[in-house]
Amino acid sequence: MVEGSIFGGRVIHRQLDYLCGAAEDGRRFFRGSPGAAAGWQRLCARLERAGQEPGALEAMITGAAEAFAAFERLIGQAETVDA
User: What three-state secondary structure class fits 43?
Assistant: First the structure.
């Protein structure tokens, strides 16, 4: 799974050449790094441990829902500006 996500990010990074040319601004995140897989695995393990703390799972779900709602608002604002 981790390797697939990293590979997918690299594909996205390459596909943005038509928008960004050689510039890295706005897409550097997708390029990844040599230690990305190990870092991702540590993050996932930490999230698993955090989710076992009392009340943490509910807070994580609430936080994720709020983050996606914020993304939705931002996308809606961008669509309004572009229209």
Answer: helix
Judge if 61 and 32 occupy the same domain: no
> DSSP 3-state assignment of 8?
helix
How far is residue 23's CA from residue 2's CA, in Å, rounded to a whole number? 26
pLDDT tens per residue across span 20-48: 888 888 787 888 777 777 887 888 899 89
Range of the domain at 16: 1-52
Query: Which phi and psi angles does 54 have, rounded to 5°?
Result: -55, 125
pTM for this model (two decimals) = 0.51
Contact 12, 30 (CB under 8 A): yes
